[in-house]
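<derive_structure_tokens>
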Amino acid sequence: MKRTILIASMAVAALPGIAQDKYVVSANLALKSQNYDEAKSEIDKAMANPETAQKPKTLFAKAQVYFTLQNVDKYKNDAPYKQGLDAAVKLAESKPDYEKQAVDGMLLTGGFLSYNDGVRAYNEKKYTESAELMKTVIKVGEMSGGKRFQNANPTWQKQMDTVLADAYLTMANAAYFSEKYDEAIPLLIKVKGNPIRKSPSVYQCLIDAYGKQNNSAQELAAIEEGRKEYPSDITIRNYELNYYIKAGKMDELVKKLEEAAAKDPSNADLNFNLATTYLSMAAPKDGKKPANAADMYKKAEGAFLNALKASPDNGGYNYNFGALYFNQATDVNDQMNSITGSTKADIDKFDALKKQRDDLFGKATPYFEKAYAVLSPNEASLKGEDRRSYKSSMLALNRIYAIQNKLDKATEMKKKMDAFQ
């Protein structure tokens, strides 16, 4: 008898977790009865014991309880899903196939909730908080090599792939706008390698980040890759122009574009890029026009004509061609305004400049009108450069019509401008 008692005693002593498992059972029963306070209390007791805390059934029960609490008004403001997700992640890592469908559902829900909170933090410019939440999203999304949900539900996997891509993009932007360029650059590189969220803006941030680090070699490499991927993006094109301007290599840029356009003369984008490059050389940002400005304007004019020959209904091309003449006309108008004398020589000079100005405005008008006609049918959905071109075309036409004394057209355009604001 003594041996039997000893054996029984030893059996109880060897399995201390059995006593604690009752808390998991009672937590599940309380959850089933919608007694949420008791469910939380009981599962917390089970988790407090190191001998039961890491058991699959304990982790599973905690995940279920805490995800349920996320929908209970009393608890939801404390974001209990975070603890539920932590338990689900630990369970998935230690026992990947344990109650897989249910665990997958909780992982997906927790990843989405983390993403939403991360977006809110980002929008409030709480970049550090946002990044930490997105790291959680990434941890979930990259489980099982990024294919945790593929076999269970392809739709879930597709949703998670998109959220994962968004999480990396949000982290990249958070680091970039915090001026943490060492952190931002590898994240931006990862984002640009993913077609889900690859975009011109990613390249723009990457180029700028390299520029801020004075890493000219990588800056140029990012510019060249971005120009290849998005040849019509004006911001990337401007980064390219600015790079060559800073490096004093505008002649090199022009040579590259001229060679490319000569090989592919019907390529609208190449001719447009060449035209805007000539234009930037004719009218540099510092306002100091070169001696060959007139020649550059002429070359720009020819390149614009080639671009429009290949793509006559491109609103951006038409707007920028109109701007070539409009900006020259504005310069001439400034010269007219600087004449303060009333001698015959002054009057003759004024009249000559006025004719020159009016001719330039006349040349600009059909291109602005074409840009307006092309873009106006999609007015409500215009974004980015198209939206700026559309608005600027209306502003230019309003001014030109007023100068041409076409007051009815000027008034009509003003009304359209006001309605577009």
